[in-house]
Amino acid sequence: MNNFLPINNKKIGILGAARSGIAAAKLAVNLGAQVFISDIRKLSNIEVDGINWESGMHSDKILESDLIIKSPGINNNSKIVKKINDSAIPIVSEIEFASWFTSGFIIALTGTNGKTTTVELIDSILKKDGVESFLGGNIGVPFSTNVLSEINNLSKNKSLHVLEVSSFQLEDIKYFKPDIAIILNISPDHIDYHES
Tens-digit pLDDT profile for the chain (196 aa)? Predict the structure, then answer.
C-alpha cells in the first residue's frame, strides 16, 4: 500500500528543476499538491503555474515538504540530500512518483548499454501493431509528462508506457513495479557516482 497517497493538498518538494523535475511539478500541481521547487543553478524563471520556487541555492524551505521528488542527477551524498535524510522526509524519483498515477501497462528497460535503441524498437513494434504507446523516461520525455497526457486523454484505451530507466532514476524507487522489467546488461559504468 502506498502511504504517500493521496497527494492533494500535500506539500511536494522538487529537488532539481531540470526536465524531470518540471514534469513532476506539473503533474503534482494537476493532482492538487502544493509544490515547491529548489534548484542549485541560477535560473531566471520556472514556467509552472501555481508553484513557489528558489534557485541558486537549496534553502531549508525544501524541508517543509511532506515528500521530495529528487532529480536523477543529484547525488545522494550531496549536502541537501543528507539534510533531507536527517529530517526523515521521504525521497522518491520522478519515475516512482509518476508510476503512482498511471493505470497503464508499463514496460521498463534498464542496463548499461543499448537502452535507447531497444526501447525505440519496442515502441516502434507496438505502434506498427496499432497499440497506443507512450515512449519516455531517460530517453528525453519524462514519465510524468506522459502520465499527465494519459490523465488528460479521453481515450478509453488503456495506456501502454515504454520506459528507458537509468540507474540514477532507479536509485530512489519505493513502489515502482513495471508489468514487464527488462535488464539488458550490466557492466562497470558511472563508477564516479556509484563508487563500486
Answer: 688 889 999 999 999 999 999 999 999 999 999 999 999 999 888 878 879 999 999 999 999 999 999 998 898 889 999 999 999 999 999 999 999 999 999 999 999 889 999 999 999 999 999 998 999 999 989 999 999 999 998 666 788 999 999 988 898 999 999 999 999 987 765 555 546 6
**Ramachandran region of residue 49, left (φ > 0), alpha (ψ -120 to 50) or beta?**
beta
Question: Which residues, in sequence order, are bridge partners of residue 12?
Answer: 35, 67
Cα separation, 183 vs 45, whole angstroms: 38
With beta carbons less than 8 A apart as the criterion, state whether 68 and 86 touch. no
Cα–Cα nearest to 2, from 181, 182, 173: 173
Ordered DSSP codes for 146-189: HHHHHHH----SPPEEEEE--HHHHTT-SS---SEEEE----S-
Beta-carbon contacts of residue 163 (< 8 Å; ≥ 6 apart): 95, 106, 107, 108, 109, 119, 136, 137, 138, 143, 178
Nearest to 114 by CA among 47, 26, 186, 34: 186
C-alpha span between 180 and 106 (Å, rounded): 6
- Distance (Å) of CA 156 to CA 31, 102, 115, 147, 159: 20, 14, 30, 15, 9
